[in-house]
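Dear colleague,

Following up on yesterday's call, I've attached the two folding results inline so they're easy to grep. Please treat them as preliminary; we haven't cross-checked anything against experimental data yet. The first protein's sequence and structure tokens come first.
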Amino acid sequence: MKVKICGIKDVNTALQAVEAGADALGFVFAESKRKITPQKAREIILNLPPEIEKVGVFVNERKLVMEEIAEYCGLTMLQLHGEEAPEMCEGFSLPIIKAFGISSEKDIEQAMQYPVSYMLADSPKGVYRGGNGVSFDWSILSKTSLREKKIILAGGLTPQNVADAIQTVRPYMVDVSSGVESNGEKDVEKIKAFIHNAKGERG
């Protein structure tokens, strides 16, 4: 199982997440308590192994701005987390992850209209789009055929529930942010526990 740790803000946490087995790290460039500057993201990314996916998270941003930040920072994927239209997801130089808040099968039908390989299934938006620590009914995803999409499961995942979530949804990847934090900051021990449980390692 692939694991993405989102909302990375410092080199130490990034490197410890990678050492623990993270496959992807997310950098939030939209309004959020986890927002990072392109300069800081670049500094972190320069220290990361090449095989780690570096995902830039954007909300209703202009395509040119996203491409410029991606090139400057060394991003390898872009995650669109706003109300972007299907046509907005075409013509990028990098793979696109499109995020959707899932509350019914109708939301999945909408997601299928998007020309992207990666669909991030998240909880319906709260104060911020994503990172709200609330899960949704995973069985909605298990009932629906999404064969042509790689599902990235997010929304309220924790070290305690990630194994059950994986068993229910069988996603391509799981994505966590607030579920591995303590007092609003990334907690390395929680990151290690999350990755351990997601990958099914029984030590």
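Below is the second protein, in the same order (sequence, then structure):
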Amino acid sequence: MSGISLACWAPMVPFAKTRLGLDEAHLGMVLLAMGCGSLASMPLAGFLSHRFGNRRVIGIGALSVCLFMPWLTLAPTAWMLAIALFCFGASHGVVDVAMNAHAVDVERMSGGGIMSGFHGLFSTGGLVGSAGMSLLLAAGAPLLACAVVLAIVLAVLTVSQWKNFLEHAQAEDAKKHTIFAWPSTAVILLGVLCCISFLAEGAMLDWSAVFLRSSRQVGYDMAGLGYAAFSIAMAVGRLSGDFLVRRFGAVNMVRWGAVTASLGFFIATCLPWAGSSLFGFLLVGIGAANIVPVLFSAAGRQGGSAPGIAIATVTTLGYTGMLTGPAAIGYAAHATSLPLALSAIAVLLLGVAALAPMARR
């Protein structure tokens, strides 16, 4: 549900840009509203999950996402779109924290590493959402109708799975920590690395369609294929990630994944063809696929913080990159160019590769 609904926004961005007559800088400011909503709700989500259990928080948060999704196609002004994005982002923030905490509980109960598989299903949702929206638009369906249909499907999916979520499954040692304790330095550093990786994902979500449309002259109906290619690679990489991590080790997965993602950004922005850009976005997905799941698992193993606090910290810092980074990209694109702004992410990813040994701790 989370992956599909978030990916549905990617093909909507060029429509919003054209409908409201926004340049890159103003669009970046509007996109910032989604990040503000998520970051405002994430600390509250940790408390709500602790107080009421993951089942209620995930379910109610997911239904809220479905409720706000059609708003994104109706906003008549930039301010109204910003408000809709704030509410949409806040609902997503609640779901993101609760579902990752839920995944840590399930991973602990299963006795094996399965975090990449969970994130792989998020990426699968990203593929379904972006491809589904592109197909509906190509068939001539109005944008509002596309959003309403997918919101109804996701609401049915949420209600049908509600009873299968866990309430509370915290380990005994985790209960010894107060929920308000300050996270350890190692957890904060892992969160910073997640922030950069999520920044790359956020750039794909909010700017891949705009880049293909404005810099590679791809049609509106096909502009969502950039995020679709990225999501395909993410899904395949994450669904096979648990095996790959066991085979090559966590440090190598982070190091070479970051290098591959960096190369993908350079190829997408430096070569002038639409096909090469799609290939570059594919490499970004392959490289970034398992960086975040590995770092999340590393955070959950830290001894200086309760698992819930560690996950909340890494999630919040990570989504700071995903949700506020695109606004910074918008300003950088306005001051220079969109290809150059996206190339800067490649440099940051090389920094993640240099700090990959953090995943071992």
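For the second protein, one point worth flagging: The chain is about 80% helix and 0% strand.

Best wishes,
A.L.
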